[in-house]
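> tool_call: predict_assembly(chains=two)
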Amino acid sequence: MNFHELQELIKLINKSNLTEFKFKDKDVEVQIKTDKYQKTTIQTVAAAPAIQMAQVPTLQPAVQTMERQDAPAAQPAEQAPKGSNLIEIKSPIVGTFYRSQSPDKPPFIKVGDPVKQGDVVCIIEAMKLFNEIESEISGTVVKVLVEDASPVEYDQVLFLVEA
Amino acid sequence: MYPYQPLFTGKNVIFLPETNSTNIDAMDLLAKTNPPEGTCIITDFQTAGKGQIGRGWQSNPGENLLVSFILYPDIIKASDQFYLNMAVSLALVGTLAEYYIAVAIKWPNDIYHKDKKITGILIQNILAGNYIKATVIGIGLNVNQSEFPDNIPNPASMSMITDQVYDIKAVLEKLSCHLEYYYLLLKAGKYRYIKSIYLKNLYRSGVKALYKEADGIPFYGVIQGTDPDGRLVMLKEDGSTRLYMFKEVSYII
């Protein structure tokens, strides 16, 4: 199958109502899952993490409900002090944490600042990919846990926000 | 007209005769409006081309392809983002192959012809939760430029390699096709396939060569590939294997 044929195939599948498509011959194997497939998958797997969600409703950012099949099961937010309404903003990737757009610019957020859902809170650079991290929650920044320009791990807590 | 037509990539073209940086423009556009997927911003001249921090991109007016594409890879997990680097790099390998220019990908995403750099790529993502909400893929491909300032190490252009002059619009069309092809493969979850061709095209892969770490002392190593986070896997002479983040190792060329 050449580039053009594959492109035609994708076009056809996009127009169709298919959720999943597999094709195999002696030298090529193609498997396509469409948006529709993704949507149905999310709905069915979201049910399991939702049970844990109910136990720690104030601590979990909204994103946890979006966890998919291939992601680790939602973990209860153990690090946050019990009984408070602190929400953690965690790093979704391994990389280097930057608090501002460039060294001569002020930080995106500081302690005491209000933060809204959709605001950029930091940049994490990973293997030359620059990621602007958007807040999923609204509240007030109470703690910045990572120094500017230092390495961060997957799931490391970056900020604490009081909702 | 190029025989293959992309479905959406490069269909909506915004041309600016001169600008600071097409990546900055694309990020602004994303912040203010909702541009259709595949929108690209091209310019003849960048006054503040974004390279790595502290490194500008030198380009003579109208001689090179300077473009930023906007895509919404929102089903790709943030932790899988290195595949974006792979897809974009492979799109350039494919585009240049159409001009009979053989290149390799210098980890993580520089495009090299022999030991010379022909393309710079800068990708900026917007992450919402664990997924990539939007991405701006900035590409600077040296097309017709024949002279470069002395402070640019190892530059090359398509024209310098083949001694021909190219139509930049035609190069953009081909690049749009190849980018869309790899992008759709990525969206279809073909990660293993993409990684296998990325590794096949990786510069110095499996070859003993000289490198240095922060201490500046040269050492011999053999590149083994990349780990799932995109770190470079290097087998060192003493038999140990090390994982490098970007900038933790440099190539002695």
